[in-house]
Amino acid sequence: MSGASTAVWGRAEQQDFRSRVRGCLLGGAIGDALGAGVVSDSLAGIRTAHGQEGVTDFVPAYGRRGAVTDDTQLTLFTVDGLIRAQVRRDTGAWHPPTDVFRAYQRWAATQREWGPDERRKDDGWLAREEWLYVRRDPARTCLTGLADEAMGTLDRPKNPDADDCGAVMRSAPFGLLVGWEPQLVFQLAVECAAQTHGHPTGYLAAGAFAVVVHGLARGESLDNGVQQALMQLVTRPGHEETVEALKHAVGAVRQGLPSATRVESLGEGRTAGEALAIGLYCALVAEDVRHGLLLAVNHGGDSDSTGSVCGNLLGVLHGETALPPGWLAELEGRQTILELADDFSMEMTQGPALHTPAASAPGWLARYPRA
């Protein structure tokens, strides 16, 4: 798998890319936090508790407003793994799925340990962030898929029947590899999804989502991104459910004004295809980021994951300055997310200035060890 880019980045291009990366990660986290307090509540229950409009702001979850779930946690470790893959390439080793798998195992450690183990110097800085050492109802499939050192592959995937949204909701960062071609982005996202989700819908929806994000990160439209995703899907065995989910999302746009009822016609967001369809539909019809995110979480189902998917899409489409500042101010982990987003942007646009096989910035290797 080769994904190196030889493009030269101008200053304006770097600034635009950084804004999209920040928007993608922060937008996904905001959507996650908006849905966290109403996960699995029925639409009627949401309206009874919060009024006819439903949720219009953060609802306390896990003891605070703006709390994120495992969706955001795993997305951050996906980014960490992608940076580590680029850094380790200097050693002659180049297998991004392995680096992402190791990052996911570092996330798994946060779910079973009390806090960072300072003796593990090779963990890097993200795994030393204490606020990540909390359980936020992680998907069982993610925990079991990462329970041992054996990495799931497409030939031998973990959890062969798993088609839930636990892989798609963490896969937006693959789409931020703008120097890669869409087919390589799709392949990497699919391979990494199979580490925990072995059902074709579980991993193909992750690949499709990454390709849509990829198009937006390159400045293309949502519609073009969907068409690119469909092109990648149709050649893969077991693609039918994911293709149908994308077509349902696009078709729902033409059926009238956006509504919670129309969102619920796409499912509950518990399967990978449903979460992708709902998040995509809400992004397609969104008047602005706020409108799209509230539409994505006001339904009976997996509101944090559908909010996260929609937020990733709207964030990368519009950039960080389009995100509602009041929500950003209360978002859990905002500083960590910003720091990681900026590190990813630097790695993708200025990597050779940070590390080469011959010489590297010590501070960068301390953050992202080659081991």
CATH superfamily: ADP-ribosylation/Crystallin J1
CATH structural architecture: Orthogonal Bundle
Number of strands: 0
Low-confidence stretches: none
Percent helix among the residues? 55-70%
CATH topology: ADP-ribosylglycohydrolase fold
Explain how this protein is built.
- The protein is an all-alpha fold.
- It has one domain (11-367): ADP-ribosylation/Crystallin J1 (ADP-ribosylglycohydrolase fold, Orthogonal Bundle).
- Helices cover 56% and strands 0% of the residues.
- It is built from 16 helices and no strands.
- Helix 1 (11-36) packs antiparallel against helix 15 (334-354) and helix 3 crosses helix 4 (96-110).
- The longest helix is centred in the N-terminal third of the chain and has 26 residues, at 11-36.
- The chain is globular, with a radius of gyration of 19 Å.
Features:
16 helices; single chain; 371 residues; mainly alpha; ADP-ribosylglycohydrolase fold
Write the layout of secondary structure elements.
Layout: H1 11-36, H2 43-50, H3 70-88, H4 96-110, H5 140-145, H6 182-193, H7 200-217, H8 222-233, H9 240-253, H10 260-264, H11 272-285, H12 289-297, H13 303-318, H14 325-330, H15 334-354, H16 362-367
Helix pairs in contact: 1-3, 1-12, 1-13, 1-15, 3-4, 3-15, 6-7, 7-8, 7-13, 9-11, 11-12, 11-13, 12-13
In short:
By secondary structure, the chain is mainly α. Helices cover 56% and strands 0% of the residues.
